[in-house]
Design brief:
The chain contains 15 helices and 12 strands. The protein has 502 residues and is α+β, with helices and mostly antiparallel strands.
């Protein structure tokens, strides 16, 4: 028996050793021993420490939400660059024709059900026309989505109510709601264990259960004396915001990182413009002459000084005054300062500086192509966010209600076959058409990518494209615009040709 076993026998214990004692690590928070430069404290970082926050996401948002939203709305009206940003989002994320729906209905054997696909897409296009899709009857679906994405970027969040059993052909309609109707100051703990944070009711897993809305917009001057809130279940309302931190219940404007710099730039531009305008209009001043003498004749009345100046005019300087010309130096740092500020603003907004500022001066083809591709990735990410956040819910609601209402003559028992939908956002023309077209051709020939892939990248529905090609081929043949196709030689004709040749 070795020494270890003899020791255990003497103690009357088993062969299993006791677990080691837990040793707590000694952590030092002594000043000056930080490894991260960004965590050091001192004179140069005092202002940084004042701006830092240890609160949760909801507390940070609640504190500044109203001010951020109000200032973002003011800039959307008065700042040309903010207006440009929202216009770029509507043009590139939604596009002129909107994000198209493509049905993926299949038959029982898994083959494409082209009849059901055409029926679903036809009814969807009819639903998207102005006066059909929204409860007010004033928007087409494309206009509705353009308004939606601008509200989302400007206010940081937007709501859409899905109204089922609506009195129209499809039994389905949409209502866009401004985020002001979701009460920011409503915070409470409910008896059922749910919590309300800034108007959003969540369960213990922080899943949205309902939304507490003002029955009327709080800024509406025509208020009715009625119950203040309306509780809308989460299944009937889509509340969209860009996630920033976990446990987040509300969103905030997308322009938050650049709003302050944009404000100062707008103020600087306005001051420089006023300065240049006044310098051009005011060429000089009249000042008292230090050696002036009393005018002759004490009884003469004072002559009023004519201050109106017209182009090409001359005036006589009154007695006792002399003319002093003012310098009209134009600002020399205006353009460089504006350009540098806009670069930082564009970095916070998302689009490239050249697009945001409408400035293509000194841009080479390679740099423009690189910036264009990076900017398109920003729009593609936003398009994916739009599809996942709202379009999937709208498409599912439309399909189910249109089927139940009878607008879609599809058997409900086979709903799983035609419930899959695909969304095709707008695409862009090639930056370098010749080179990119050759690259696409090689990818198709190498079978690394398909024709359908490139069609979807351009915002084209592949099924519509194939059908259009087929119709075009038949119409051109019927009009005699295509050369006749050579007939295939039969075996007998080949033998006869060989005999004649011999």
């Amino acid at each position: 028996m070795n020494l270890f076993k003899r020791a255990l026998g003497a103690l009357g214990g088993s062969a299993r050793p006791a677990p080691p004692a837990r040793v707590e690590p000694v952590l030092s928070k002594a000043r000056g021993q930080r490894s991260f430069t960004a965590a050091k404290r001192g004179r140069l970082t005092d202002s940084w420490d004042l701006r830092s926050s240890q609160g949760d996401a909801n507390q940070d948002i609640y504190r500044d939400h109203v001010t951020l939203r109000a200032r973002a709305r003011e800039q959307s009206i008065n700042s040309p660059y903010a207006k440009r940003f929202y216009r770029l989002l509507k043009q590139n994320v939604i596009g002129a024709h909107g994000i198209a729906l493509q049905s993926k209905a299949v038959l029982g054997n898994g083959e494409p059900d082209r009849k059901s696909r055409r029926l679903i897409e036809k009814e969807w296009k009819r639903f998207c026309k102005r006066g059909n899709c929204d409860v007010t009857g004033t928007y087409s679906f494309t206009t509705f989505m353009q308004l939606w994405v601008e509200c989302l970027a400007r206010d940081g969040e937007v709501m859409v109510r899905l109204l089922r059993n609506w009195p129209n052909r499809w039994g389905f309609a949409l209502q866009i709601l401004e985020i002001d109707r979701l009460d920011l100051d409503l915070n409470n703990l409910l008896d059922n264990g749910n919590t309300i944070r800034m108007g959003v009711e969540r369960d213990k897993w922080e899943r949205p259960v309902a939304y507490w809305l003002f029955k009327q917009h709080p800024g509406d001057i025509y208020q009715r004396p009625e119950e203040q809130y309306e509780r809308v279940p989460a299944s009937e309302l889509v509340h969209t915001f860009e996630p920033w931190r976990p446990h987040q219940s509300r969103g905030f404007t997308w322009t938050h990182a650049s709003a302050a710099e944009l404000h100062h730039l707008d103020e600087y531009r306005h001051a420089e413009l006023v300065k240049s305008e006044m310098s051009a209009k005011l060429t000089g001043v009249l000042e008292q002459d230090a050696e002036w003498m009393d005018p002759p004749g004490d009884d003469e009345e004072d002559v009023e000084l004519e201050e109106r100046i017209e182009i090409g005019s001359t005036q006589v300087v009154p007695y006792g005054l002399k003319y002093k010309q003012l310098s009209s130096n134009s600002p020399t740092q205006f353009a460089p300062f504006t350009k540098q500020s806009l670069r930082g603003i564009a970095a916070g907004f998302g689009p490239s500086y050249n697009r945001l500022a409408h400035d293509l001066e000194g841009v080479s083809f390679s740099s423009l192509r690189s910036g264009e591709l990076d900017e398109r990735d920003f729009y593609k990410n936003t398009q994916r966010f739009v599809i996942d956040s709202i379009l999937d819910d709208i498409g599912a609601g439309f399909l189910s209600m249109a089927t139940l209402k009878g607008a879609l003559k599809l058997p409900p028992r086979h709903a799983d076959r035609y419930s899959e939908l695909c969304w095709i956002p707008r695409g862009w023309d090639w930056v370098d058409p010749l080179k990119d077209s050759k690259a696409a051709t090689e990818s198709i020939n190498n079978r690394t990518k398909t024709r359908s892939y490139y069609l979807r990248q351009a915002g084209i529905d592949p099924d519509d494209h194939w059908e259009e090609l087929e119709r075009e081929q038949k119409e051109m043949q019927a009009r005699g615009l295509l050369p006749p196709q050579p007939k295939e030689a039969t075996a007998d004709a080949v033998d006869a040709a060989l005999v004649n040749a011999e």
